[in-house]
Amino acid sequence: MSVTVRVPAKVNVQLAVGAARPDGYHDLANVFLAVGLYDEVTVTAADGLRVTCAGPDAEQVPLDRTNLAARAALLLAERYGRDADVHLHIAKDIPVAGGMAGGSADGAGALLACDALWGTGASREELLDICAELGSDVPFSLVGGAALGTGRGERLTELEVGGAFHWVFAMASRGLSTPAVFREFDRLGEGREIPEPVASRELLDALAKGDADALAATVSNDLQPAALSLFPELADTLAAGRAAGAPVSLVSGSGPTTAFLARDAEAAEGIAGALRASGTCRMVRTAAGPVPGATVV
Ligand code: C5P
Fold first, then answer.
1. Which of 27, 115, 137, 222 is catalytic?
2. How far is CA 123 from the centre of its chain?
3. In 33-101, which residue ranges form alpha helices assigned H by DSSP?
4. Binding-site residues, please?
5. What CATH number has the domain spanning 2-159?
6. Residue 121: Cβ-neighbour burial (10 angstroms; 0-12, 13-18, 19+)
7. At the topology level of CATH, where does 165-289 sit?
């Protein structure tokens, strides 16, 4: 028997970052939006734990126990006193190390799939708890839709969204390490007072109304200067998207994927075409959000 779970990518429409905490993490006001770019995780009973991966970026995915999907299976098995005897197969479409929560998606997907395969009867709260242990963005991959993440991003408040937002995503020629981007954020902020991160009222209103122009006027990402400092060529991609008419361009999460908000699906295709022709990125995709979180298919 096998179970397949489909899990979306995310873009952060607001990422407000506070000062480094004593534990090394940063308090965040993190507004997540799940978008229709998906990884699929299939779990099948096997002798022992095995991970395989297919897709354009598959060779960059670790297949050992550092893979978040493997860690999710091991954590759930441990809690329920069983062996993690499963083959986890990841059909990967979300860019690797791209700032779109691809690894987190695989963790949430494997957790939900193993839970269904093993019939553990775990509650939603228990699953969310395990997600938070796996990583700051993993709870959102389970929940999907739109949500405000506080703490290190793992404490979620679901948000109302009044319509679909159309996006273009430009994938970069290499990845960025999330810890490295946070370290660069700390370095750039040295000697400066870092304010407490708070969600923008205007931005939450724009989401609730489904108003793309209002959202474009309020998106922000405090990690963007750090991502640009480590990967200066991203400025060319951001400029190419703006030149193509995108109302706003930003780095997605810790990057290096860049995100462009469009007014509708047709405008998104136009911006995508211009970005492909610009030669400033490796691959371009369009996707709309919000979409539901991890779902058994
Ligand atoms: O929680 P997760 O393992 O995904 O975080 C990866 C890394 O990103 C952390 O080790 C930390 O360096 C950085 N991080 C942070 N503050 C957060 C979330 C992540 O500094 N709120």
1. 137
2. 24
3. 68-79
4. 95-105
5. 3.30.230.10
6. exposed
7. Alpha-Beta Plaits (3.30.70)
> What residue owns the CA closest to ligand 1's atom 2?
135
The C-alpha atoms of residue 180 and residue 282 are separated, in whole angstroms, by 22
Whether residue 256 is preceded by a cis peptide bond, meaning omega within 30 degrees of 0, is: yes
Q: Which two tokens stand for residue 275?
A: 């970005």
71 lines ligand 1 (CB under 6 A): no
Percent of the chain whose pLDDT exceeds 70: 100
Task: Decide the pairing of beta strands 86-91 and 26-45.
Answer: antiparallel
Decide whether any atom of ligand 1 lies within 6 Å of the 99 Cβ: no
How far apart are alpha carbons 254 and 195 in whole angstroms? Answer: 19
- Model pTM greater than 0.90? yes
Per residue in 238-282, pLDDT tens? 999 999 999 999 999 999 999 999 999 999 999 999 999 999 999
Q: Which two tokens stand for residue 267?
A: 């405008």
CA angle 47, 48, 51 (to 5 degrees): 110
Strands 165-171, 283-289: pairing kind: antiparallel
Q: What single DSSP character describes residue 173?
A: S
Domain ranges (residues) in the chain? 2-159, 165-289
Q: Is 92 a catalytic residue?
A: no
- The alpha carbon of 1 and the centre of ligand 1 are apart by a number of angstroms equal to 35
Nearest to 102 by CA among 52, 131, 137: 137
Active site residue 10: yes
